[in-house]
Amino acid sequence: MVAYDEMFGADAAFADGPARAVYGELKQWMDAASEEFFDARRRQAELFFRRIGITFAVGGEAEANERLIPFDIVPRIISGKEWKTLEAGLTQRAKALNAFLADIYGPGECVKAGIIPAELVYRNSQYRVEMTRIKPPHGVFVHISGTDLVRTSEHDFYVLEDNARTPSGVSYMLENREVMMRLFPELFARHRVAPVETYTDGLLATLKSVAPVFAEGDPTAVVLTPGPFNSAFYEHSFLADKMGVELVEGSDLFVQDGRVYMRTTEGPRRVDVIYRRIDDDFLDPLVFRPDSAIGVPGLMSVYEAGRVTIVNAPGAGVADDKAVYSYMPDIIKFFSGEEAILKTVPTWRCREPEALSYVLDHLSEMVVKEVNGSGGYGMLVGPTASKAEIEAFRAKLIHDPDGFIAQPTLALSTCPTFCDKGLAPRHVDLRPFVLTGSDEVRVTPGGLTRVALTEGSLVVNSSQGGGTKDTWVLDD
Amino acid sequence: MLSRTADSLYWMGRYMERADFSARILEAAMRLASLPADEASQGGEWDSAIAISDVSDAFLAAHGAATEANVRAFLAFDADNPSSIRSCLAMARANARAVRTALTTEVWEAINDAWNEFNRFKPATMDMQAFARFLEWLKGVVRVYDGAVHRTQLRNDGYAFMRLGAAVERADNTARILDVKYHLLLPENEPVGGGLDYFQWSTILREVSALTAYRWVYRESIKPWLVADLLILNRQMPRSLLNCCDDVAHNLDRLATIYSRRGPAQRMATASVGRLAGLRIEQIFQSGLHEFITRFISENARISTVIAEQYLL
Fold first, then answer.
1. Do A198 and A109 reside in the same domain of the chain?
2. CB A250 within 8 A of CB A293
3. Distance separating alpha carbons of residues A229 and B111, to the nearest angstrom
4. Are B261 and A266 within 8 A, CB to CB?
5. Which one of A312, A402, B136, B193 has the fewest CB atoms closer than 10 angstroms to its CB?
6. Looking at beta carbons, which residues of chain B come within 8 Å of A265?
7. A133: in domain
């Protein structure tokens, strides 16, 4: 399988021959610079991240976990024209996800019309029956989404999956840009790169736009974190800090007289919008898991009364189920009347007997994923898996077919990346971040490019040794 | 500011101060232990080190009799002793990490670097000199932290909570030294050239970095009641009870200004400064030094509780 390289295109041998137009300026500049120059800059980048990232570099109490997510200094570039299409596709998708969720917790038209099987919706482990009684303020369910995209050729971008619960990684997008601008100011002078720094302003505007209509005055938003021992704590505190809102833990909040308050040194202060980075199950021990120590007792009753906004809404996880994903083209068409702009990867739902038998026969060619998995765990990449791994997966599939989907192995595009032996092509994906408020849908130009650092590997997740790149959308 | 944030800043301040204090206690005990055996109180300095740090029960349960080795291990490296240098650094760092964005890079790095560096020390192979260097290092760490707070933190409510924690802790620490050593400071104990007591007094002064200060202030040889005067009533002495109370009141006033509201903590702190400032050392001796100190410790703990009720819960 020959992958499409984003710098050199489909045909040219790697690093030999002309670069695609969008990479022209970068290629010219890179050719003129020395190896020592890049070595020095790479060391500098590492230093910057150690300083900035010092708080996510420290893990639990006993083990000082010094792991940094590797950063590659070669930017990934997307032309303005390409981005226009992606942006339209992402906006369309975000709107469809919201319409879908409002429908399945409301009239259920799409199920009645046979667009999607009822059991996939109503017996989904992410379905929260409480939400049938609750209308989220301004009708928005998914305020913050991250849609993973991969590129397979000059013109083809596919959606790999939607993240409608609490997508993470946006802090890396912002830090990557910060570090790149410090390292290569001259490169930014030669390109018109669309800014990403406005993300946090957009996030705050989005949060405030969905405040309950009852909120008097300027609404108060907070970021709710499980605490410093969560692996994404750095991002939680980073976002709170950039927005200038409080980073709270469950114990900082309490419910009184039908409102949510936070405990401050000046007494209780009303909270209107909660950007929660904890799972549905832990939000409110009176409604969901009773053993949750990180939630807020009574929160859901205030939510039901429409006096606080939870971002994203509980139950939004149905929309990022990987089996539901396969119905997205129909869902988009059903709610918008339009064809899906972004392509969906052909998906075999192992819950269907015919699909299952096809998948079992072709395991060594396919990628198999858990429908509720994330982080690249519980996943089989057929072409690179060992015989034993394939057989182990076969057993899992037969045991629980409902829990899995399978897709053909895509030829993910590559991007030049610094490796031990110099520049080499490495597979990348892209996670753009989409904000949906009551006012508008905001798509930050670019997103987080993740790169599989091992030669040939298609798994880009940072938990599996992936790295990141700065992503440029050119204003051309 | 979130109450939890304020609470973390307050305790971060307390734990850094306590780490420094534990190091000073250990230094003093080592110095006393280096006296010739017939003059020293037969290992009593290690008992008193444990007594001062207010963890006697836990220590007895774990070790029984105090020896140099087990006191050193307990006060410096024991993870189960909440007042050990190790625990103080770990707690200070846990609190700092929880409020990372309320701290400047300099303050965070002072604490984080200290913790990383601490883990490189090898307690098992430390001889007397290596241990002394370790204590010296720790005191340096706390100075770097203090300096970073002083030089870089915004003078906002967060700053006031950090300083408040340090001042309350320091008052408690000085009072504990006095509590354990008070009998040495009573006027009738003035010896006729007793070398041991002289050594004890100067060690008390050293524990609080006040040996030189004593000479500047009193310009005479060390008299126990003057040592008491310096540590309790001298307003210029950074670790005196009066100065600590001043600090507490001052930082509470800062909060009252920022929040435009005074509360029970401010009233209590102002009253205790007033009471202390109006006293003379003779009066304290007359009504009982020990009773005075006991009362002070519980009053100081009461202030901490009132601060918590007013701001931190």
1. yes
2. yes
3. 18
4. yes
5. B193
6. 1-3, 6, 157, 161, 255, 259, 311-312
7. yes
**pLDDT tens per residue, range A279-310:** 999 999 999 999 988 999 999 999 999 999 99
Query: Do B239 and B174 form a contact (C-beta atoms < 8 A)?
Result: yes
Same domain membership, residue A313 and residue A390: no
Q: What is the pLDDT of residues B31-86, one digit of tens each?
A: 888 776 555 455 678 888 888 887 888 888 888 888 888 999 999 999 999 999 99
Residue A41 belongs to a domain: yes
Strand pairing of A433-436 and A348-349?
A: unpaired
CA atoms lying within 13 Å on the CB side of residue A47: 8
Q: Which domain holds residue A135?
A: 21-212+308-345+410-473
The pLDDT score that the predictor gives to residue B54 is: 78
C-alpha–C-alpha distance, residues A456 and A413, integer Å: 11
- Using beta carbons and an 8 Å cutoff, which residues of B are at the interface with A? 1-6, 90, 94, 97-98, 100-101, 105, 108-109, 112, 115-116, 119, 157, 161, 255, 259, 261, 311-313
Q: Please give the Cα distance from B93 to B211 (Å, whole number).
A: 32
- CB-CB contact of B100 with B85 (8 Å): no
Q: Among B153, B188, B203, where does a domain finish?
A: B153
Q: Same domain for B129 and B1?
A: yes
B149 plus B180 within the same structural domain: no
Question: Which one-letter amino acid corresponds to residue B271?
Answer: A
Number of domains in chain A: 2
* Window A:200-229, CB contacts with B under 8 Å: 227-228
Domain boundary residue, one of B153, B173, B201: B153
Given pLDDT bands bounded at 50, 70 and 90, which one contains residue B142? very high
Q: Residue A416: phi, psi to the nearest 5?
A: -60, 135
3-state secondary structure of A144: strand
Which structural domain range is residue B213 located in?
155-313
The interface predicted TM-score of the complex, written ipTM, equals 0.81
Same domain for B148 and B11: yes
Do A320 and A352 sit in the same domain of this protein? no
Taking CB atoms and an 8 Å cut-off, how many pairs form between chains A and B?
53
Nearest to B166 by CA among B106, B272, B112, B88: B88
Q: Which amino acid is at A82?
A: E
Distance, in Å, from the CA atom of B173 to the CA atom of B181, rounded to the nearest integer, reads 12
The answer to whether position A290 is within a domain reads no
pLDDT of residue B66: 86
Instruction: State the DSSP code for A366.
Output: E
